[in-house]
Amino acid sequence: MDPSRLPRKLAAILYADVADYSRLTGEDEDATHRRLREYLDFISASVEAQHGKVMHYAGDAVLAMFEAVVDALSCASTIQNDLKERNAELPKERKLQFRIGVNLGDVIQDRGDIYGDGVNIAARLESLAEPGGICVSESVYDAVSSSLPFSYGFMGEQKVKNIEKPVRVYRVVPADDSDGSDLSQGTSAGNVEQTIRFCTSSDGVGIAYASVGSGPPLVKAANWLNHLEFDWQSPVWRHVFAELSRDHQLVRYDERGNGLSDWEVDDISFDAFVRDLEAVVDAAGLDRFALLGISQGCPVSIAYTVRHPERVSQLVLYGGYTLGWAKRSQKDKETGKAMLELIRQGWGQDNPAFRQMFTSQIIPNATVEQMQWFNELQRITTSPENAVRLRLAFGDIDVNPLLPQVSTPTLVMHTRADALAPFDGGRKMASMIPGARFVPLESNNHLLLESEPAWQRFLAEIRSFLD
User: 31 and 95 in one domain?
Assistant: First the structure.
């Protein structure tokens, strides 16, 4: 045996960290620290009770090691269930919630601590979990998926910091949680079951798509950062999908480079986005359907409709544009370049400040909870590198020459005070599509929230048009 080689072993690693800890301490440092000490004492006791060992604490983070992966995941579940009860009486803004990652991997033991990729992956899994949630690697899933009363939602292959190969990640769903189930069997979407499948685009890229509801088919084109599973949990998206699937078979998909679709792709371009939509429609076996474009989904929907007019029965365009930021004014170009640099520098950080700039444009009138959710969605849905590549592709869009060629009945809707996609752009879009109907909506938001009157108007208009 090489005496210079540090001792290694296969171990189950649990890494837990407090979500939004900087904000909590900034608002009330003493109270937050007192509660953190109480919670850490409980976590330490839980680890010991499940035959594990706390290796070290790092501020608000805990690293623990277990001999058995079943013990590690059982401990993670116990911690989250108990903390949920402890947080129940606290207001939302004061809840101290942990994210937990569990990995089964090789670790280096030295001076009473553990190191190596096995530990690093557990820490990255923690950062992908929701507050109060648990994420596990595929090695954990393979070892215990049939041993514990949980379901698992596959989150795709995630490229994480300082780890060369993408990590296949699963979200843990307790057996009594009615909001989710194993994606191979369908994900719960309210009172209906969403089924997620995969297809292959023309260049070999894997695209994840989902179908929910019954009735005439309605296809929603992908837009800026979707996630087939997490969108259903969102206070920003779930009301949209719940209502649209009430009367239709709603088919939607994750764009290449984000969500459950392939992240490691050579081509991220507007033409590739259109080809992905073609692949999804063919895989879903749809001959004729209504097509919905939202935001960046509008130009993709327009291009598809011009290519395949015989397949699109009705076209609905909401909050869209025909020219990307790099094709607009000099001010738009400069703003777009500045935002690209901010994405490069800060997208993957736990601090949501960099992602908040997008959230503030998309839903300026949202509640704190809604904004926090959207910040979190953007973080877990794609990598900083892909966020930049997607923004560059969106900036290069120009479908103005296609607008006069649209022969499909078309409804265009746009909010008057949209900060992300200017109202005049929506009005111009409608004016250039022959026979299109234009409906202005009274809202400051780019994505309509369930609580605002404009949402009810949107829903009434789209149902009337599709019926």
Answer: yes
Per-residue pLDDT at 318 exceeds 80? yes
Helix extents (H) in 88-145: 117-128, 138-144
Q: Are residues 166 and 232 in the same domain?
A: no
CATH code, domain carrying 428: 3.40.50.1820
Residues 320 and 213 in one domain: yes
The number of distinct structural domains making up the chain is 2
Residues 151 and 220 in one domain: no
In whole angstroms, give the CA distance from residue 146 to residue 153: 14
Which of these three, 107, 142, 174, is where a domain ends?
174
Q: Give the pLDDT confidence score for residue 1 in this predicted structure.
A: 45
My answer on whether 57 and 99 are in the same domain is yes
Domain assignment of residue 316, given as a range: 187-466
Structural domain includes residue 179: no
pLDDT tens digits along 204-257:
999 999 999 989 999 999 998 888 988 887 888 989 999 999 999 999 999 999
Tell me the Ramachandran region of residue 435: left when phi exceeds 0, alpha when psi lies from -120 to 50, beta otherwise.
left
Q: How many CB atoms lie within 10 A of CB 16?
A: 28
Through-space distance between the first and last CA atoms of the chain, rounded to whole angstroms: 75
Residue 221 located in a structural domain: yes
> For the chain, what's the residue count?
467
Q: Which residues pair with 64 in a beta bridge?
A: 14, 54
Residue with tokens 């950080």: 349
CA 3 to CA 22: how far, in whole Å? 43
Tokens of 90: 């606290």
**Based on the domain organization, do 361 and 398 belong to the same domain?**
yes
Q: Which two tokens stand for residue 464?
A: 């009337």
Residue 325 neighbours by CB under 8 Å, 6+ apart: 332, 333, 335, 336, 394, 395
Query: Given pLDDT bands bounded at 50, 70 and 90, which one contains residue 338?
Result: confident
Nearest to 138 by CA among 186, 170, 95: 170
Residue 161, phi-psi category: left (phi > 0), alpha (psi -120 to 50), beta (remainder): beta
Asked if 151 and 230 sit in the same domain, the reply is no
Q: How confident is the model at residue 190 (pLDDT cuts 50, 70, 90)?
A: very low
Look up residue 228 and give its amino acid.
L
| Token pair of 337 as six digits | 């370049």
The whole-angstrom separation of Cα 426 and Cα 147 is 53
- 407-444 per-position pLDDT tens digit: 999 999 999 999 889 999 999 999 999 999 999 999 99
